[in-house]
Amino acid sequence: MPKQVRLRRGTTAQHATFTGADGEVTFDTTKKLLVLHDGVTAGGRPLEGWVVLDPGNPLALQEINSSVRVSGGDFESWGLSVDNLCLLNQVTIQDVASLRAVLRSTLTLIYGASVQLNFAAFSSYSLDLAGNVSFTTLNLSNGLEVVVRIKCDGTLRTLSFPAGWKFVGAAAPANIAANKTATLQLRCYGLADADVVARYLVEP
To answer: At residue 121, what are phi and psi to the nearest 5 degrees?
Structure first.
């Protein structure tokens, strides 16, 4: 029979107070993973963040504790394929219809003196003003569009926009009158605020 090699082992709690020799490898019996040691770090360095697969149970949650980049696929083939339900940032995607519903949905923004418009998150936002507001942007990319419904309260409010935005049809508005509703239409043609074309429309 082949020889069996066993590493020193212990629970996560036991590892926390253990300093292994430089180059030593031990086994954490609580987390079921290997721990690397350098001779000075108590607890060592657990080999966490790996993809742990459980092929015997297709419903088991497989966790990846780091960012993931999928570089495969091209314009004719999938870079990522999900056969069943998909949960994205707490939004369940079941099929193409539900994905379209998410893309068509509007996110209600929480008022603040500075409001950030995330171009990669939603294409439609709604903002009820309770004071003056200055807009900023996040995740600009060529081809992304955003529409913001702005509803003013009972007081005239000033509006501020990134200096690079190019307003068409009319100059950038300085304010919105009390109890008026407006739309701010934005389309990005690059990666910077200078690549954003804006159009502002307000009810008479």
So the answer is: -90, -60
